[in-house]
Amino acid sequence: MQWGILTALVVFISGLVSSETLQELLTWVDVHLGSTAQIAVCVLLSAAIVIFSKLFCGYICPAGTVQELIARFRTRIRLKSIKIINGSAADKMLRIIKYAILFWGLYLTTQPDVIQAEHVHWITICSMCLLVTGSLVVDMFWCRYICPLGAISNSLKFWVWMLVLSAGYCLAEVFGADIPWIYLPGALCIVGYFLEIFNARPQMQILHVTKNEIPCNNCGNCVRECPYHIDLRSFHNGKVNHVDCTLCGECIAACHNAALSFGLSEPTRSKAWRFVPPVLAIILIIMGIWAGYHWDSIMETVAGLINR
């Protein structure tokens, strides 16, 4: 799916599709789907993060594919990368960048006249340059330290804390506290950052990579092949619940002893579980598009149930 999305982006950007055809496609999407489908897909993928994991990052977002390609190119030209160990002081300091960018983006939504078309153009160019140059130096640099969607995804893994903060803000408003709304996302970003660096093993997920210690010989192949270099050797029998895990399955493919698999909490050797994360991602996208297409009828049905 990542390769398909990346290929589509390259085709559109390179001009292989005429501007008239592209405009007709965008018009069709806007008329038949529009923002409602985007909202529905975002809601479903957010629910997937809470229940399963970061399926968007592992199976949909093309930025991960670009970074992996750059890493292979770097290896081919024998360019050494900077190794930033998960949990190190440098790693913890750099992770705050994506939360700062997220808060900045949310703040700009209150300033609609600040960002103009030319600003978006330059932001896009700078982001692409940062994606490429950062990945040449540090593995998964964009996803680990820059991407605001990564900050949202990691925060949603601690959804109980996010829910408590949001409920506290709503209660304060009910009791007459006049707190600007931007304070809420600011608090969510701060709490999400501290939870990510001090509690990198969220406990509320259902689906995980699971580890069976009996066949594991600590060869380290899984750590080397993991895009985020999660130290799976530090996890013992059961679930691997690291905050960076996207259920991409690279560690499972790299394990020659079948010590790793997808599962709920207990280790399993069934290969059927390997299809669960990508199938879930496809189902959620289809459901989101369907919900966006039938948004009005869904809202009417919900309103009717409430009135009853």
Structural class: mainly alpha
**Rounded radius of gyration (Å):** 21 Å
How many strand units? 3
How would you spell out the order of helices and strands? HHHHHHHHHHHHEHEHEHH
Q: Helix share of residues? A: 55-70%
Unreliable segments (pLDDT under 50, ≥5 consecutive)? none
- Estimate the mean pLDDT confidence: 84
Strand order of the largest sheet: 2-1-3
Strand content: under 5%
Largest sheet: 3 strands, antiparallel
Number of helices: 16
**Cα separation of the termini:** 42 Å
What spatial form do the alpha-carbon principal axes imply?
Answer: globular
Structure report:
The chain has helices spanning 2-14, 19-32, 34-51, 55-59, 62-76, 89-94, 96-108, 117-137, 141-146, 148-156, 159-174, 183-198, 221-225, 250-254, 276-293, 295-307, and strands at 208-211, 238-240, 260-263. Helix 3 runs antiparallel to helix 15 (276-293), helix 7 packs across helix 10 and helix 11 (159-174) runs antiparallel to helix 12 (183-198). It has a three-stranded antiparallel β-sheet with strand order 2-1-3, with no helix packed on it. It has 308 residues and is mainly α. It has 16 helices and three strands.
